[in-house]
Amino acid sequence: MSPINLFSAPPELSRGEHFEELLRHRNIVIERIVSTDSPETRRYNQPQDEWVALLQGEAQLELDGKEITLHRGESCFIPAHTPHRVVATSAEPRCIWLAIHIFADEP
User: Fold this and answer.
1) Is residue 75 part of a domain?
2) Is 39 domain-assigned?
3) pTM for the complete prediction?
4) What's the domain range around 68?
5) pLDDT in tens, the chain (107 residues)
6) In sequence order, which residues have a C-beta less than 8 Å from that of residue 84 and are 6 or more positions away?
7) Vertex 38, ends 46 and 34: CA angle to 5°?
8) In this structure, is residue 57 part of a structural domain?
9) Contact, 5 vs 96, CB < 8 A?
10) How many structural domains is the chain composed of?
């Protein structure tokens, strides 16, 4: 297996986010997400738990109706069926996230 550089540049984006699956193993999916300063503000309500870490940048999230700010190096756990969305992300540097999805069974 080849090493993965979490900070390598994704394709150029002007809007939205780039999702890249890094690993799928049993009931775990790990992905890298790169956000522009115009992220997708879609509200999610997922059947799986999710842990996200912000590796670079700054972001505001809405979790179950409450806004939180994440700074570089901070993380949060989002339990399954918790409504959440990205409200805003920094332009410079762009946000790079590490997301770990934990499913009850294999996806």
Assistant:
1) yes
2) yes
3) 0.91
4) 17-102
5) 789 999 987 778 888 899 999 999 999 999 999 999 998 889 999 999 999 999 999 999 999 999 999 999 999 999 999 999 999 999 999 999 999 999 998 87
6) 43, 44, 45, 61, 62, 63, 64, 78
7) 65
8) yes
9) no
10) 1
Looking up residue 58, the CATH number of its domain turns out to be: 2.60.120.10
Q: Where do we find the tokens 């049993």?
A: 26
Taking the C-alpha atoms of residue 64 and residue 15, their distance in angstroms, rounded to an integer, is: 25
50, 54, 59, 62, 63 from 74: Cα distances, Å:
14, 6, 10, 15, 15
- Which tokens go with 77? 């756990």
**Whole-angstrom distance, CA of residue 24 vs CA of residue 54:** 20
Domain for residue 25, yes or no? Answer: yes
Task: Spell out the residues 6+ positions from residue 99 whose beta carbon is closer than 8 angstroms to its own.
Answer: 30, 31, 32, 33, 50, 51, 52, 53
